[in-house]
Fold this protein.
Amino acid sequence: MAAASLRIDQLGYRYGEQLPWALAELSATIRPGRVTGLVGPDGAGKTTLMRLVAALLLPVAGRIEVFGLDTRHQAEELHRIIGYMPQKFGLYEDLSVMQNLRLYADLQNVTGAERERVFQRLLAFTGLEPFQQRLAGRLSGGMRQKLGLACALIRKPRLLLLDEPSVGVDPISRRELWRMVQELVDEQTAVVWSTAYLDEAELCQEVLLLDGGRLLFAGPPRQMTEQLAGRCFQLRGIAGNRRQVLTRLLQRPEVQDGIVQGKNVRLVVRPQRAPPAAAELDPTAGLVAVAPRFEDAYVDALGGGPGGISALAERMPPWEHRQETVVAAAGLSKRFGDFTAVDDISFEICRGEIFGLLGPNGAGKSTTFKMMCGLLRPSSGSGRVVGLDLQSAPGKARSHLGYMAQKFSLYGDLSARQNLEFFSRVYGLRGSGQRNRVEQMIEIFGLQPHLQASAKDLPLGFKQRLALACAVMHEPAVLFLDEPTSGVDPLTRREFWTHINGLVEHGVTVLVTTHFMDEAEFCDRIGLIYRGRMIACDAPAELKAQAASPTLADPTLEDAFIDLIRQWDRRQGELP
């Protein structure tokens, strides 16, 4: 067996003597020649562990050795053999791709002919060669992550630490990042990959699962998955609304977890419990046993999903369900100089419908969102919300919608409570009505422990909860969510979709973007945007049917996403 790259022995760390342990009594061994996945809910200690291994923090208890070097006493030597890509974009946005590479080469003392060879290799490896002069701040999400990886590889590290490298990255770029990292792994190199995407974790040779700073599992992901044999099922042939069936399912005591999966609903039953009778959930449905996935095992290990009832939706007044168009885009286009970001996009969304906008990074999704919110004026075309034109009556239109931006858009220097109070006033709430609504949001989203903390310092999951709370403060008829769960763990994502599904059942209309294809399954329809144009628009099941082939009879939505883009490229003559 190969010698250990990384030994962690009874590691403990906390950020202050009076604060709880961020990591406690953690022991693990990581070996070269493999990718080790690091998973766990928000606040589990994943980033803290990464920083300790990189010798950016020093242990309070226990020790860490990297290839025999102790992080307490040999940090300078360690920094020569470790590559670290932090969770937050750590590059200089006002420098170009090449300028960032030169800066990191200077920091690593890579000079002369070696420097030029490294640049050529990394630019070719990441596909960034055509974008050398582009500012980092103007790169798409996928290209930013590739640049971050390139900077971490200026010197080929013996240990590469990647802290959620695929956050906010589309499925095509995620696969490219995974391929690139796999190519780096050899008998002298180890990779630790922290991720919120459990399909990525399932591909790792080893997985470490953290919760509350403690190690719950270490080993091959299949060992954890095998523990759920006989407990996973699909409800197939559903005649009614899948989201309503899921809500009923999650209220049953024998059900541990459940999600919408295509036309079906997937469920995990609790240990030593029989599955529910299919006829009790939907009169035409049948229950079929299926193989467990790592995500099933992950949710099970953390005690199950959040349930199917949304306290937020239950406190919202219901909107009357009518077959009426609530959101409409007609020929929307946006040009920035010679560049066309959005080109002639049209769609309509009915009341109580979830409409998803999917597409690669830089496809034009967020630009479309901003035009539909009245935050960006279109070059041509129009957008309407509840019958109000976003150009002629932007204020009135915006009063009917809630908007959660792709990037955290609240006031970071204000506390969580101050943000709630500020946005409630912006939306016209006053007096006792305002106070009651703020207290409701605090209770619904569990914000009480974080009310006095600055918004910028909140854990990611609570930042997203606070942002959603501010977006729904005024009980909007329309909710625009631009990658609302980017980077958050699967349990928090389930919680968000419980709220979204509940709101939709109350007649709220939702426009959402996401890079999580399992979330996109909740949508009634999906518009696929590529290079500023809408290249497909249909229900998730129909999009998957379009991608089906003799070699891929049952494609996933991710398969369909990639295949439809390739089909479009072939029609344009860009692929053979």
Q: What stands out?
A: The chain has 21 helices and 24 strands. The chain has a mean pLDDT of 90. The CA atoms of residues 59 and 311 lie 41 Å apart.
